[in-house]
């Protein structure tokens, strides 16, 4: 028996012959194929994987049996799930006998039509060498032994910062003025808030990300239409947010709108 971690994959291709009366594939007319030998490795719970030339709704309507070691009685697979694939559907289910050993497996598809259960012909036999207990990594000559993994270093958290770049303090703005600022790389969004001279809130504008520096610093911009405001003193404040929702504010800066 080979050593290793088995990621069991059994490939089956089902070609549908249509039952004209029922308008659904008849499992007893399905042709099933499988490679004659599969030697793979599993983890703690071996999983069978196969393909079927049918959409997932049809594939999931079938039951499936596994005939193990040429047994005349099949074992109904439990927990079958089928999802869309390029050639139809890919299905999977836990292998019904997870003990270590060498097995041959054949699969069939079943469908209940009225009081009759129709079963497809058996697939070709696949040979499986199952090792559910992973061997010790790093043993010389050990087939299937994975190398000892290198621990991934924990990244150093980047503090959330924001710095207002323009306009300058006490600047006079007219028309559409750019409010630009820089944040640390941990920022995921930012905004500029405008107040009047009495510190009364006027509006908040979401910023657009303009560029990201090699260092990770991010450049943001808000295009502020000063025509919509009164010709008077205003206060600009910029705020940055990280993915967790934490925020940081730059010191407020006083400017004058003049149009």
3D architecture notes:
- The chain is mostly beta strands and 259 residues long.
- The protein folds into 2 domains: 13-130, Immunoglobulin-like (Sandwich), CATH 2.60.40; 162-257, Sandwich (Immunoglobulin-like).
- 2% of the residues lie in helices and 46% in strands.
- The chain has one helix at residues 56-61, and strands spanning 13-15, 18-19, 24-25, 31-33, 47-52, 63-68, 75-76, 81-85, 88-94, 101-113, 116-119, 126-130, 162-166, 172-173, 176-183, 187-196, 201-206, 208-212, 218-225, 233-242, 247-249, 253-257.
- Strands 14, 16, 17, 20, 21 and 22 form a 6-stranded mixed sheet that branches.
- It starts with 12 loop residues before the first strand and ends with a strand.
- Mean pLDDT is 78; it is low at 1-26 and 28-39.
Runs with pLDDT <50, length 5+?
1-26, 28-39
The total of helices stands at: 1
CATH C-level class of the largest domain: Mainly Beta
Give average pLDDT, whole number: 78
Shape: elongated
User: Sheet with the most strands?
Assistant: 6 strands, mixed
Proper CATH architecture of the largest domain:
Sandwich
Number of strands: 22
Structural class assignment: mainly beta
Structurally, the number of domains stands at 2
The CATH topology assignment of the largest domain is Immunoglobulin-like
Strand proportion, as a percent range, falls in over 45%
SSE order, as H and E? EEEEEHEEEEEEEEEEEEEEEEE
Helix content: under 10%
Distance between the termini: 85 Å
Radius of gyration: 33 Å
């Amino acid at each position: 028996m080979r050593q290793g971690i088995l990621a069991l994959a059994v490939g089956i291709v089902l070609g549908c012959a249509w039952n004209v009366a029922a308008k659904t594939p008849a499992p007893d007319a399905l042709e099933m194929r499988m490679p004659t030998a599969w030697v793979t490795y599993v983890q703690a719970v071996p999983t069978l994987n196969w393909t079927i030339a049918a959409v997932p709704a049809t594939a999931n309507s079938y039951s499936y049996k596994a005939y193990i070691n040429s047994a005349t009685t099949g074992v109904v697979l439990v927990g079958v799930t089928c999802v869309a694939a390029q050639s139809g559907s890919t299905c999977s289910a836990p292998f019904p006998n997870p003990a270590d050993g060498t097995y041959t497996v054949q699969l069939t598809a079943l469908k209940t039509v009225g009081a009759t259960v129709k079963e497809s012909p058996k697939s070709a036999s696949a040979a499986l060498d199952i090792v559910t207990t992973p061997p010790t990594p790093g043993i010389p000559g050990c087939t299937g032994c994975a190398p000892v993994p290198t621990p991934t270093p924990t990244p150093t958290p980047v503090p959330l910062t924001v710095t207002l770049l323009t306009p300058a303090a006490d600047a006079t703005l007219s028309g559409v003025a750019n409010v630009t600022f820089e944040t640390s790389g941990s920022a995921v969004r930012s905004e500029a808030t405008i107040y009047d001279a009495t510190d009364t809130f006027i509006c908040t504008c979401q910023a657009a990300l303009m560029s990201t520096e090699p260092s990770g610093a991010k450049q943001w911009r808000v295009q502020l239409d000063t025509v919509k405001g009164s010709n008077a003193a205003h206060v600009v404040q910029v705020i940055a947010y990280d993915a967790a929702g934490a925020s940081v504010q730059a010191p407020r800066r006083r400017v004058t709108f003049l149009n």
